[in-house]
Amino acid sequence: MDLLLHTEFWLAVGQIIMIDILLGGDNAVVIALACRQLDPSLRTKGIVWGTVGAIILRVILIFFALTLLKISFLKLVGAILLVWIGVKLLLPEEDDGHGNINASDRLWSAVKTVIVADFVMSLDNVIAIAGAAEGAGGDHKMPLVIFGLLVSIPIIVWGSQLVIRLMDRFPTIVVFGGMLLGWIAGHMAVTDPVLLEWTADEAGVVRSSVSYTASGAGALIVLLLGKLLGRHAGAERRGKS
Questions:
Q1: Mean per-residue pLDDT for 153-161?
Q2: Cα 208 from Cα 103, distance rounded (Å)
């Protein structure tokens, strides 16, 4: 229980919740679409079981992701993917593909649809959450991931529409969210085993100055790339109209 007293633990939990709100907003839409033809008496069960199944699947995926991140160069690849996910968060939204979600009037068929759709949509969440857990360090990564995801469940299922409206009203929230992913990517990159010879001290811990510099650079890269590509996309749309 002493891990609950560590600042790093609560910072990582906050990052995981923020990531799940920003990248998991579509989950509530998927759940609603998959369960919309269920009998009203079964909708709550469909939502709950679909969400539970999706969260369990995500914990399993993140477990493998945390294991794989110990391999040289994979953290660098993960950092690049995180930067791109952060940049995509700042770009204008296109067709989200929700029309491909098939509704069902049978409970377990709807639950299966929610879980399969979440699996397809979860790559960005898995990489980002694994990166946030890695940043916390220590031997409590999986408890941290599970705790963060459990806290996120009610936010995703019942609060995501409110959060989405807030993000529409205050676009700065999305910008900070994208920069957060860049921050995590920067830290992840310098903790790759292949770079520890240059980034870590004698105890094998990444130096604070290196970590903060890389994290700040990652956040800045996401912001600049997002703005640059966003302007380019806007110019292209204006040219076609």
A1: 61
A2: 50
Please give the DSSP secondary-structure letter assigned to residue 221: H
Residue 161 to residues 21, 24, 126, 170, Cα–Cα distance (Å): 10, 11, 22, 14
CA angle 196, 136, 217 (to 5 degrees): 60
DSSP assignment letter at 106:
S
At how many degrees (to 10) do helices 7-23 and 25-35 cross?
A: 50
Residue-level pLDDT at 95? 46
The neighbour count for residue 120, using CB atoms within 10 Å, is 11
Q: How far apart are CA 188 and CA 186, in angstroms?
A: 5
Q: Which amino acid is at 202?
A: E
pLDDT at residue 220 tops 80:
yes
Task: Please report the pLDDT score of residue 213 as a whole number.
Answer: 95
The CB density around residue 11, as the number of other CB atoms within 10 Å, is 13
Secondary structure of residue 171 in the 3-state scheme: coil
Instruction: Give the list of residues 6+ apart from residue 98 with CB closer than 8 angstroms, or none.
Output: 26, 29, 30, 33
Question: Using an 8 Å Cβ cutoff, are 211 and 190 in contact?
Answer: yes
- For helices 172-190 and 208-240, angle between their N-to-C axes, nearest 10 degrees: 130
Determine whether 145 is exposed, middle or buried from the number of CB atoms within 10 Å of its CB (0-12, 13-18, 19+): buried
**Are 19 and 180 in contact, with CB atoms under 8 Å apart?**
yes
Q: Which segment of 49-58, 82-91, 136-145, 223-232 scores lowest on mean pLDDT? A: 136-145
